[in-house]
């Protein structure tokens, strides 16, 4: 068998028990040659985001950084019997590097600073897990993925330079034995850290698999696989045993957050199967994503995205919402980095549901008001129902105030208050 890629997310390594369980997963799945991709532990990316926010408010809450420090140190204390094990020094070296950066930095570029800081979540988690694997008798080699995975300088949303990344990975990353590295992070041509966008570790696993022609990719989650809905919000979600790449791309694109949306296309291109499995029950088959039938079992799938913004626009001068107006609106949406989830237009109105991820809504609305009548509904939810049935739709609409509804073939979208 060729080599595989495993990806462990934040939930799987949120504490010492999680790290121990990761080793259990390796034991139970009888691994061969393997690249292991790991995210930051638990909610450490959020904590590091807070460090960046505090830094820019000029009130660097040193307690946030101390929290990050203590979190990793405590996990290490639980994992390593020997308090003078080299891993403690390695953790400290990374934290000192981070503090050194914050002291020296002169760049006012928020996104640049963000990437130089949040990358430490993954550097710390992989350092700890690698040392633990060694303690448990595994011969695993730690790699700094930033030496392989190259992006442009779009900080916080780095675009992969496929040519250079492919060359680096195929020349330098061994395909024998266990290689362990970070998800989510990368670097630009000047060697500065970049990131691939929140939740981007799944994508890293796919990039490595694509560049090195892996046999398969498994992402280990706290759920049994891809379900027909997020079990946190929908009762009766059922496990999907099989989904095609196409279906998985659609589900992820509409917001099924169990797989990062960018993960699937590289895998589809080379027909590398993706398995989504439970790190608590690694023997179970989970979900397989590959070529073949659309979805099995064939059930309605529900996706919910909260904290969205519905912007409704109409012209000030009775003109129609046609090419020129719409072109202008899209230019502004792009400029203010609004992720568009849904569009609906008629002769005189244009509605768009967006994700205000970069907090640019106010600035965008000021611009739009110069040319349009603008109504904004903040904090709306967007529901997408795929493989909709009448019964599923009635149930979904129950007790909700629907602001907008869009029906396309077998997909229905609702924006609700
Ligand atoms: P990771 O540990 O890799 O970061 P995530 O937390 O990003 O994992 O993804 C797993 C979570 O995705 C689950 O806990 C679940 O709440 C959520 N989720 C959303 N939609 C689905 C779905 N359709 N099927 C399974 N889980 C889903
Ligand atoms: N640690 C990063 C995040 O929380 C990447 C990931 O977990 O996939 O967004
Ligand atoms: Mg995640």
List keywords for this structure.
9-stranded mixed β-sheet, 6-stranded antiparallel β-sheet, binds adenosine-5'-diphosphate, ATP-binding, VC0802-like, single chain, 17 strands, 417 residues, 2 domains, alpha/beta, binds magnesium ion, binds aspartic acid, globular, Carbamate kinase
Approximate strand percentage: 15-25%
- The CATH architecture of the largest domain would be 3-Layer(aba) Sandwich
Radius of gyration using CA atoms only: 23 Å
CATH domain class name of the largest domain: Alpha Beta
**Unreliable spans:** none
CATH-defined fold name of the largest domain: Carbamate kinase
Which cofactor or ligand species appear? Answer: adenosine-5'-diphosphate, aspartic acid, magnesium ion
Strand order of the largest sheet: 3-4-2-1-7-9-10-8-11
Query: Pairing-aware structural class of the strands and helices?
Result: alpha/beta
Run of helices and strands: EHEHHHHEHEEEHEEHHEEEEHEEHEHEE
CATH superfamily label of the largest domain: Acetylglutamate kinase-like
Task: Report the sheet with the most strands, covering strand number, pairing sense and barrel closure.
Answer: 9 strands, mixed
Determine the N-to-C terminus distance: 51 Å
Query: What is the β-strand count?
Result: 17
Measured as a percent range, the helix fraction is: 25-40%
| Number of individual domains | 2
Q: Shape from CA axes?
A: globular
Rounded average pLDDT: 94
Oligomer: single chain
């Amino acid at each position: 068998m060729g080599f595989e890629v495993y990806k462990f997310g934040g939930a799987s390594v949120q504490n010492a028990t999680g790290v121990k369980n990761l080793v259990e997963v390796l034991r139970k799945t009888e691994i061969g040659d393997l690249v292991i991709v790991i995210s930051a532990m638990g909610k450490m990316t959020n904590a590091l985001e807070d460090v960046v926010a505090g830094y820019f408010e000029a009130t660097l809450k040193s307690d946030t950084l101390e929290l990050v420090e203590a979190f990793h140190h405590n996990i290490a204390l639980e994992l390593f019997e020997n308090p003078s094990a080299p891993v403690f020094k390695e953790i400290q070296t990374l934290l000192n590097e981070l503090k050194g950066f914050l002291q020296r930095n002169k760049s006012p570029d928020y996104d640049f600073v963000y990437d130089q800081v949040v990358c430490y979540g993954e550097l710390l988690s992989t350092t700890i897990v690698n040392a633990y694997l060694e303690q448990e008798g595994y011969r695993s080699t730690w790699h700094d993925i930033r030496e392989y995975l190259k992006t442009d300088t779009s900080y916080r949303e780095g675009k992969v330079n496929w040519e250079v990344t492919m060359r680096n990975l195929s020349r330098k990353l061994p395909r024998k034995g266990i290689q362990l590295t970070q998800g989510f992070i990368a670097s630009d041509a000047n060697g500065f850290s970049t990131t691939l966008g929140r939740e981007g570790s799944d994508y890293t696993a796919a990039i490595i698999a694509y560049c090195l022609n892996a046999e398969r990719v498994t992402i280990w989650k706290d759920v049994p696989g891809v379900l027909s809905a997020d079990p946190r919000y929908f009762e009766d979600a059922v496990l999907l045993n099989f989904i095609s790449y196409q279906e998985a791309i659609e589900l992820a694109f509409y917001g099924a957050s169990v797989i990062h949306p960018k993960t699937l296309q590289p895998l589809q291109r080379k027909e590398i199967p993706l398995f989504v499995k439970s790190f608590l029950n690694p023997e179970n088959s989970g979900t397989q994503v590959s070529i073949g039938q659309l979805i099995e079992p064939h059930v309605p799938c529900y996706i919910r995205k909260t904290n969205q913004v519905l912007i409704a626009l109409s012209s000030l001068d009775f003109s129609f919402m046609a090419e020129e107006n719409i072109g202008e609106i899209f230019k502004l949406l792009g400029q203010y980095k609004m992720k568009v989830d849904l569009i609906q237009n008629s002769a005189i109105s244009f509605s768009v549901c967006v994700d205000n991820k970069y907090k640019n809504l106010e600035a965008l609305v000021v611009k739009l008001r110069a040319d349009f009548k603008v109504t904004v509904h903040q904090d709306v939810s967007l529901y997408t129902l795929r493989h909709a049935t009448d019964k599923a739709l009635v149930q979904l609409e129950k007790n909700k105030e629907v602001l907008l509804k869009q029906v396309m073939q077998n997909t229905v979208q609702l924006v609700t208050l």
